[in-house]
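Protein: Aldo/keto reductase
Species: Nonomuraea spiralis
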Amino acid sequence: MRYTTFGTSGLRVSELILGTMGFGEDWGWGAPPEECRRMFTAYAEAGGNVIDTANRYTEGSSERIVGELIGKERDRYVLTTKYTLSMDGEDPNTAGNHRKNLRRSVEESLRRLGTDYLDLLWVHIWDPDTPIEETLRALDDLVRAGKVLYLGFSDVPAWVIARANTIAELRGWTPFIGLQLSYSLLERDIERELLPMAETLGLSVAAWAPLARGVLSGKFTRTDATAGSRISRDAVPERHLAIAAEVDAVADELGVSSSQVALAWTRAHRTWIHPISGARTFDQLTDNLAACDLRLPPETVERLDEASAFPLGFPQNFIQMSREFVYGPSAARFDRRVP
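Structure follows.
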């Protein structure tokens, strides 16, 4: 496992993140504690150091299991959790990004995790009913109190992050250093606005669902492994199955698994994208870990890019096609400097 710094911070993180959404059986499809321990141990022995959980995952069991697993070695790991999601559907103030929910949620997460601080706290999803200034100021208070070291935002529009970090810079508050976003060969939407914004602002990205809920693992293209799956084959669009089949073909040619190809692709263009491995079994996780040693040939990356190509839409497509009209014929001889 290799490491790099996260966002604009000096925090060292491993290239693959361990996702623990399925730690615990409260939702009917997760892993029992003994299987969680096997996965955690394999990840740690491979050099992984980032554990991702959330207050709502398996109704709090995920955080409790993670806390028990890290135990006395807590400082060795980059421990991250999230807040926003409701833990009591009858109380409207147990959800959202406002100060009251933040304080309650973080205190409860710290108790379940058995620690007195979080390395990184994610805002779980954008809450349009809470002013971003309130969220930023409340988060900064937690950082100043030593309960949180770094901040990230999950599932959020690009303009919200750009505005938030501009406000933080202006007022001397703690900025966000990373984003957690859905990203895979089947879902490349973040390439429109979010990834260019992240690159410009120096934000790292933790990619959730890099295997598209198992579709890119070959479970529907190599076999019809619907048992225990959270989705059925009938719910998967034919285009997605075609892309998955291309991933299978590449995997066969390289002598690796489909999952490894799909995971390696997420980092092929940008090393500051960290796929989250949310395996439910030891065998799944060990297979995913092998992706860290896989470097896809450039022609293979291009092949997968073409198989999963999608329209960027307005204004990106319009800007690109208007390039010569805007800048003249010399545009064809201009090499853009990447930040």
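Remarks: The domain at 3-313 is CATH 3.20.20.100 (TIM Barrel).
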